[in-house]
């Protein structure tokens, strides 16, 4: 199993008031768990997978085996999803839209980014922030930018009617809190993407939210948007956790809409970067992004959806004008008051724990434990 963290190190401050869904690693294999009133329940005998538990729609803990108080349980948290597809939305904040255009115009060359950033922000930054995607005003802005020679495929998904939705990672490949997170060894310009992700069932109902890191290679995607898959989908390049906080009277989709996501990066070279992303600045509503993901597609095991990030680090690290890029050994800490803390250490993808438990091995493990009396 690909690393994890002790539960008590990743809890939100009001964990006893919330209801949480996730997975823990046991000696027999991964098990879905619920946290209710501060108590941890192993739900594997009720539903062998998180996906099956979500589809059943019963988060009462009935039939589960109590593992005791959450903050004293001797278990290891892993990625909170299993059979769900891992989807992601891009360019959902104005700042990220400008940064994607910078990558495109710089052709992935960090050295050219500074001057382009200053020029674009001055000319289109305010305009992008002021319009609603898909509106008549957005169409007028597009026409003006096209005429000025400033149009970009990234601006199309920033202010056009259609959101960017892509598949971030294969089923079962995500890592959890405490695991190593990977960047490609041949990338020289990359960054974390601290985000909130929604967990959605097969009917399209958002049932909860968690933190995530949608790692991005800016040099690869900047050279060509057709390299998005290579920039996004690499070993250990997607982390989720620590738990999915389920929607209830104490935590709703409105809490997601107004959440602040904080990022801290600490390097072994004593470099430190801090920043924050406020979901109130997102240009598309989270539930609209869910709706667009479901357009003419079905997800019978549900999906988890990254909502995009406001934060694109530009603080110089090694030399003036270079901006930020990861180094091996960086500790990435993503926090939000109601969702807890997701911490991962950066390594090269080739050096991260290999992904060896695919769907076949996963089902074999469940069968060996006698958990497949019903659907997985």
TrEMBL record:
GO terms for molecular function: hydrolase activity; metal ion binding. Coiled coil: none annotated. Gene3D superfamilies: Fumarylacetoacetase-like, C-terminal domain. Keywords: Hydrolase, Metal-binding. Residues 161-347 form the Fumarylacetoacetase-like C-terminal domain. Transmembrane segments: none annotated. One of its GO terms (biological process) is small molecule metabolic process. InterPro entries: FAH, Fumarylacetoacetase-like_C, Fumarylacetoacetase_C_sf. The keyword DNA damage does not apply. Belongs to the FAH family. This is Fumarylacetoacetate hydrolase. It comes from Sphingomonas panacis.
